[in-house]
User: What shape does this take?
Amino acid sequence: MAIMTRPLGRTKTDVTVLGFGAMELRGRPRSPKISDDYAGRLLNAVLDGGVSLIDTSPDYGRSEELIGRYVGHRRDEFFLASKCGCPVAMPDSGPHDYSRVNVRAAVERSLGRLRTDRLDLVQVHMSPSSATLEASGTVETLTELQAQGKIRFIGMSGTLPELPGQIAMGVFDVFQIPYSALQREHEDLITAAAASGAGTLIRGGAARGAASREKDWSVGPLAQPPGVGKRSWQASGIEDLLAPAGMSRQEFILRFTLSHPGLSTTIVGTSSLDHLADNIAIAAKGPLPSDLYAEAKDRFPVSSPDDGKTISAAGRAAVGRFARAARSWRPRSPA
Assistant: This one.
């Protein structure tokens, strides 16, 4: 069964609802050890399995280099997304740098590492504020690179509290946003991004496999305090619904993410061929049955990571405020 596709916003590109997040290719010490040969097998299995989008970053260790080496010859088979803002001098550490010089240098280096003449998407990393973007000339630099044919679309890897303002700027073709059943605080903002015409790349859509029998909450979703996801899962009583449906925890979490109507794709990373095959099989099943999805949304809270307060209405209001304020925003002319 093939993985379904959805439009990536206004890019006029269809992508599979399951994408591949290549962060795990960075290897130790921050990810599992992986040999170059195995990484090559994994990347080719991604494409052979029908996945049409790969997401990477300059600060994912050797990820870009491995993609270029092992699937560069298959470049026309997938949509390639990378990032900018990562410091070129110290890509794995140090503060992000959104200046013209660093952004241009990062894109040029990514093109070389990935062995390609264009990046389909470059996303601004780590959710800087609109004020930081304006002061740094980040959007203008990306627009120049776009005009030169080095990048096709401009994106933002955004989170609260900056995401409403980033959406309201109206300059980003795609947003990468964290979301899963265990992290629903950005749910309405995914809807807002999609309504603006942007595509959405959902990260954390499998919650790092936290609920799987294999990991059994030994890890939790990224950027979530330890134990929060497990407590939310246990309080929901959702397993009472999964057993009769013959559905595993991990299948439920991934298909819950796929059920969001504003989703274009969710990027799920792994360094395991077996886990990749499992993810592809789950994604091929598509969204949850509508009744299970509705019940699950009732059981898992939409809450702020900081204070536990519901933010759905606040998120919508913030988008409206920033939209009004952003009507006069224009990119600065190149210096």
Observations:
- Residues 5-325 form a domain with the TIM Barrel fold (CATH 3.20.20.100).
